[in-house]
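Run: sequence + flavin-adenine dinucleotide -> complex structure.
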Amino acid sequence: MVNTNQSHVVVIGGGVIGSSSAYFLRQAGYRVTLLEKDALGSGCSHGNCGLVCPSDALPLAGPGAIGKTLKTLFKRHNPLYIKPRISPRLWFWLAKFALRCNARHMLQAASARMPLLESSLHLYQELLEKEQLECEWQKNGLLYVYKDTAAMEGYRATDAFLTKHFALPAKRLEACELYELEPAVADDVAGGWYYEDDAHLRPDRLMAEWKRILLEYDVDVREGTEVFKFKRKGINAIGVLTRDGIIEADKFVLAVGAISPRWEKEIGADIPIQPGKGYSLTFPRPQYSPRIPMIFPQHRVAMTPMQTGYRLGSTMEFSGYDKKINRRRINLLKSGAEPYLREPYGEEVVEEWFGWRPMIYHGIPIIDTSPRMDNVLVATGHNMLGLSMGPATGKLVSELLSGQPPHVSADPYRLFHSK
Ligand SMILES: Cc1cc2nc3c(=O)[nH]c(=O)nc-3n(C[C@H](O)[C@H](O)[C@H](O)COP(=O)(O)OP(=O)(O)OC[C@H]3O[C@@H](n4cnc5c(N)ncnc54)[C@H](O)[C@@H]3O)c2cc1C
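>> structure
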């Protein structure tokens, strides 16, 4: 048990960001209510690839991204796809994304993401001990595997960048060294780059554990409770409206992931987020499972070997809040893994899944106070790395609401109040 002070915080959204925030707020002594419209952990935090990966600190917007990525975006067979449509919001987002595709902004975004990534890796390890977190955590590193030598050499620039700015060098592995480390790779890959310190876990197990832990600490977790709007008094919120009536509190956290833009009017600011739809396929764990997760950058597919399963995931589709599972696109996961692995996937599919990543154009999460309500903190925009940045985001949210010194600077995440 933790001590309770008189202040009550309502957290809206039970994804990895809302759950982590609820946990650290409770640790700080607040009485906490977490409101989730569906089941806790049923959003984007459910079926993602489970990689906890500071090595992936570089944002999507980088030098050359326009040429490499946007040119192929309208092709249906490409893992990155934009559904052609008239959407001023989307085109505005893309224009802002394009303006960020340069070395200066890439460094700025990576520098903002890295403290949350490093701190979260550390916090996960603390949570494993302190809360007996059973989420199939494995610290086996992460491999970036290439089919051809030219593409593999292309990664040298990224390695040099991460080494220079973040002291994060990768180990370059020739094909024979790669087989030795991970015999599951196919015979004819060119080689890979290895980050030894990355980790992975099973996301749905993590979310089930968050629920257990929050309940054990007497957090009032209310599933099936959608929040419609805030009730305000002057420059503060005093409650939230749900189907069951108004729930009053002293402070609020809005952590609703990709759905955040629907709250723009309420919080009084633009939330430049697009839902970036991704898919995953989960199989039973194969008899001879790979040990180390892999990313195949040439096909933009990731493979995660979990203790109780095996997952292929990826694709980035900007098609609005579309809930359909597109068979052609989900099959890209299989064809994208085939060139790299001896047994890329099994026959039996345990789960086909999609999630909407909360994609902000510059790749830097928003952890900032609403311009309209002084006691409402917005935490969203974690793009492709919400699982990797979850615990540190939750801790920072708690520190900002409590007026405690933040363990990482909050300045980079103040989108609404940046000059
Ligand atoms: C294919 C794929 C692979 C990925 N792989 C990785 C990876 O390997 N590593 C990594 O770090 N990240 C990965 N990600 C990204 C990661 O999943 C997201 O960044 C993260 O889950 C976002 O968490 P969140 O809490 O912001 O959003 P969510 O998990 O979507 O949570 C938001 C919650 O808010 C609830 N909600 C919304 N509106 C309301 C309302 N009005 N009232 C109450 N509740 C509401 C929703 O139901 C939802 O449960 C991946 C994503 C995808 C799609």
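>> summary
The chain has a mean pLDDT of 95. Residues 103-130 form the longest helix (28 residues).
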